[in-house]
Amino acid sequence: MIFLLIEDDERVADLIKRGLQEQGFDITVAYDGLMGKKLALNNDYDLIITDIILPKINGLDLCKEIKAVKPATPIIMLTALGTTDDKVVGFDAGADDYLVKPFDFRELYVRIRALLKRNDSSIKTQSFILKYADLELNNQTKIVTRSGTEINLTPKELKLLEYMMQNNERVLSRFEIAEKVWDTHFDTGTNFIDVYINYLRKKIDKDFKTKLIHTKSGMGFIFKEEK
Fold first, then answer.
1. Which residues of the chain have pLDDT under 70?
2. What is the pLDDT of residue 120?
3. For residues 161 and 39, what is the distance between their CA atoms, to the nearest angstrom?
């Protein structure tokens, strides 16, 4: 497997590169966002790892541009910024996972394996159309409609909705959502799951009489048709 690493700190880039090579991966390194963009768009990589603070093009804009052309390519974002708001911004840019510096290389490796496994599984089993009540999600075109009205979602909102639709009428805990949608363990000190649930509610339910996303106090959330 071939990965693209975009990191302007040569020492950090070298440490990550050597660690991944020891695990059997081929690594291409770019030291600025512009070169990273050129490599990402002109080549096929199994996974991309990028810092946020980069010369020429920052990691957030870079992630958006890559995902616009290659939405299936998994991206892990590395950053020293670890607040809930920072994570939300990173996920909204299209990142599939978010790792705060400094981190243990073993944690990065676990995240990589989880993303590759999920990506491979989704390619094999993903159906084009998900339907529940009057809501429809097209996995191929990434278009979501409710009662024929198109709803614009960010990449992470789309993944959250997809998971909830696939597990409709079942209570989903914050821990499960964090693990299955974000491939991370839920940090009780942050509320990013609730933030995204609220984002999704405003877009999916606000203008419709029948609500689909419901909170189960002390348990989590359920995707169910209720007035």
1. 82-84, 86, 119-127, 184-190, 227
2. 65
3. 31
Q: Which residues pair with 137 in a beta bridge?
A: 130, 144
Cβ neighbours of 129 (radius 10 Å): 10
132: tokens are: 């529940």
Q: How far apart are CA 58 and CA 56, in angstroms?
A: 7
Comparing CA positions, the residue from 59, 12, 11 lying closest to residue 32 is 59
For residue 134 the two structure tokens come to 């009057």
What per-residue confidence (pLDDT) applies to 122? 53
Helices and strands (DSSP H and E) totals, the chain: 8, 11
**pLDDT tens, position by position, 144-159:** 999 999 999 998 899 9
Query: What distance in Å separates the CA atoms of residue 80 and residue 83, rounded to the nearest whole number?
Result: 10
Q: Give the separation between CA 31 and CA 51, rounded to whole angstroms.
A: 10
| Residue whose token pair is 């693990």 | 179
Query: Of 97, 92, 148, whose CA–CA distance to 119 is shortest?
Result: 97
Q: What is the pTM of this model?
A: 0.58
**In angstroms, rounded to a whole number, what is the distance separating the alpha carbons of residues 163 and 213?**
12
> ∠ CA 160-89-52 to the nearest 5 degrees?
120
* Residue 102 preceded by cis peptide, ω within 30: yes
Candidates 11, 69, 92; CA nearest to 19 is 11
